[in-house]
Amino acid sequence: MAIPFLQQAYVGAYLMKQRFKGNKRYPLVLMLEPLFRCNLACSGCGKIDYPDPILNQRVSLKDSLDAVDECGAPVVSIAGGEPLLHKEMPQIVKGIIERKKFVYLCTNALLLEKKIDDYEPSPFFVWSIHLDGDREMHDAAVSQEGVYDRAVAAIKLAKSRGFRVNINCTLFNNADPEKVAKFFDSTKDLGLDGITVSPGYAYERAPDQQHFLNRSKTKQLFRDILKRGNGGKNWSFSQSSLFLDFLAGNRSYHCTPWGNPTRTVFGWQRPCYLLGEGYAKTYKELMDTTDWDKYGVGNYEKCADCMVHSGFEATAVNETLTRPLRALGVALKGVRTDGPMAEDVSFAKQRPAEFVFSKHVEIKLDELRRAKA
User: Fold this and answer.
1) Which domain holds residue 128?
2) What is the largest distance, in Å, between two alpha-carbon atoms of the chain?
């Protein structure tokens, strides 16, 4: 597991504090999306299909840092859109680091060479560079040739400047296990500090709806990948061993949507990073007024195939705290890649999907029109 001891210590102390206080729901990672605008148009992305007035919006420096303070999560993942398009991003990152929070700045790296002098290496800062496989796989995923080479060049540059660098890798149903395993092997030559891997989520507004994984295909894909890497032990994942075990179908989890609360230009997103089913003005309102039992695998149709880290990593971390020997066993032995899979949750009582995306957009556009008037 490629999580530095400093981060493990800070996050571990935070988690123990929450348990000591008897808190049932608490955040692990704040997902901060300060803009939706991007300089790529990936076919599997559900974040950039907005009218220009919304794509032109930004969460300000003040509102970003207020969100960090209000939420209190020990880790902040800054996504988008493309965060490096945000003019106040260096100040946002600096402010979060000053609060002793760990920052993962997610980027496609196309602007990294131009912007890198605006940032300084820190044990609290990680470049999280989008890389969905080798050259052929990644350029196909982002719908543009040459992006892989630029991302790799950016990784080498950032490492040469003393930064911690991870990659985040999203896989779809056209992923070839052998190619993915070889790609993970090749990342060792880049000196990466960690790999974050996840199956793609079926965003309802994504242009490409044909290549998202269902649950059974996700489990088999990760078994086929991990067995080529000694149960995953050959690679440095920046994720818990139990989450990887879950991806391989060896455990059955309900998600923890409040574990990764999300702040966007719309506000605090209900119920999670992946679903925009409504928005709250404050973090407290999000936590106090969201009907959490309405969502999640087995509860809601849109969640049926989700096995994404933003929903289930917090569940795995909680189990790691309560069953540390089990987590240690998986870390030492590797993820089991054969034999029967764990029985999945029941879908018998899940409610049908509600399609409310356009309503939120209309409300926001109306707010912008009234503000301009």
Assistant:
1) 5-372
2) 64
Backbone phi, psi, residue 56, to 5°: -85, -5
Q: Flag whether pLDDT at 368 surpasses 90.
A: no
Q: What is the pLDDT of residues 23-64, one digit of tens each?
A: 999 999 999 999 999 988 777 676 667 889 889 999 999 999
Give the count of domains, the chain: 1
